[in-house]
């Protein structure tokens, strides 16, 4: 995503830093083709390192919620496909479930089987924290995927999306577009996900903060439930309450199917919309440019592929060859890119089907 300028010439990275958003790790790249001189004290990563080289055989257990949502389905598919890339990995998934007790029981079987590593996307991070601790205490490294456990003692590495960054990306796109059109006092709607989830709260906070940097504020807001049905229901209510909109952000592209349906049923097209997560169907709509949907901000399920890759390296006591450090980092946050008609072709191959 381009580092588009916010008001005052402040780039998105600077904006995040100014708000106190810490980066997990910064890797400085050497821009010179010359090797560091001897005695310089410089630490550099070995050039040409290859983590794909087979290592010790390992079994990686995997657990995630039921695939009743396009994004979750892509998580499971990506994890399986990544594991199949490695001849030294045995992939051991348990049955997906939306029941916390059933997920705990299923992962306990993997712990008892003494798998070499676990990748867990918990239904509820808080409720499964003790399970992560149990695995770690049994010397089974846990890669905590997306929904984070309450304690860092419950996982070896966390990898997930940037929920606050999603909101910033959506708010920045909307703010730039409205400012370029010289719109004053815009009415900006928001269709959120599940309001009691921290991820929804973080997305809304990032959105509000980014809009505030333009002097704008969030207008009518409704929370849905990350389903197409919920998106359609709450959007119908929002549109009835707001006879005029200038822009709308929907947090989730699966939910967005219903959001767009409600917009079409209401015959509304005086505003533009931004989606969330990066589904393939949303990208195709953006590419066709025949709906109010003009952009989406990513929360990519490719994180599951990376989680399997990290679990393999951790289980094999290997690091990431392009990094100087000998160990895999403890936390990795994916960036949230803004997909528009101009760059959608680059991202479409990574989209998931809603």
Automatic annotation (TrEMBL):
Keywords: Signal
Localization, UniProt: Cell envelope
Record-level GO cellular component terms: cell envelope
Pfam families, A to Z: Peripla_BP_4
Ranges where the Periplasmic binding protein domain occurs: 60-317
GO MF entries: carbohydrate binding
Gene3D superfamilies the UniProt entry points to: 3.40.50.2300
PANTHER family on file: D-ALLOSE-BINDING PERIPLASMIC PROTEIN-RELATED
Family designation: Belongs to the bacterial solute-binding protein 2 family.
Protein name: Sugar ABC transporter substrate-binding protein
């Amino acid at each position: 995503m381009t580092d588009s300028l916010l008001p005052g010439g402040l780039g998105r990275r600077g904006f995040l830093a100014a708000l106190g958003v810490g980066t997990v790790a910064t890797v400085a790249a050497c821009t010179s083709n010359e090797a560091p001189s001897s005695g310089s004290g410089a630490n550099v990563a070995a050039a040409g390192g290859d983590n794909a080289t087979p290592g010790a055989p390992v079994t990686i257990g995997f657990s995630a919620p039921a695939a009743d949502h396009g994004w979750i389905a892509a998580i499971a598919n990506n994890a399986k496909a990544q594991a199949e890339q490695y001849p030294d990995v045995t992939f051991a998934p348990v049955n997906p479930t939306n029941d916390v007790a059933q997920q705990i029981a299923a992962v306990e079987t993997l712990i008892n089987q003494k798998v070499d590593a676990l990748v867990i996307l918990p239904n509820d991070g808080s409720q499964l924290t003790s399970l992560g601790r149990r695995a770690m205490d049994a010397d089974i490294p846990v890669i905590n995927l997306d929904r984070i456990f309450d304690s860092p003692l419950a996982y070896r590495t966390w990898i997930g999306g940037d929920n606050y960054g999603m909101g910033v990306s959506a708010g920045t796109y909307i703010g730039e577009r409205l400012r370029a059109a010289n719109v004053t006092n815009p009415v900006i709607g928001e269709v959120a996900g599940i309001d009691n989830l921290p991820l929804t709260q973080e997305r809304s906070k990032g959105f509000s903060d980014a809009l505030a940097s333009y002097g704008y504020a969030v207008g009518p807001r409704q929370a849905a439930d990350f389903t197409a049905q919920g998106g359609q229901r709450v959007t119908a209510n929002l549109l009835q309450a707001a006879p005029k909109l200038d822009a709308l952000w929907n947090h989730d592209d699966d939910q967005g199917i219903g959001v767009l349906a409600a917009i079409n049923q209401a015959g509304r097209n005086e505003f533009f919309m931004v989606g969330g997560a990066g589904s393939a169907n949303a990208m195709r709509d953006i590419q066709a440019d025949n709906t109010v949907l003009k952009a989406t901000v990513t929360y990519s399920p490719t994180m599951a592929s990376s989680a399997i890759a990290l679990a393999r390296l951790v289980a094999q006591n290997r690091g990431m060859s392009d990094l100087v450090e000998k160990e895999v980092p403890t936390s990795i946050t994916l960036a949230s890119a803004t997909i528009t008609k101009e760059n959608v072709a680059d991202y479409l191959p990574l989209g998931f089907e809603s």
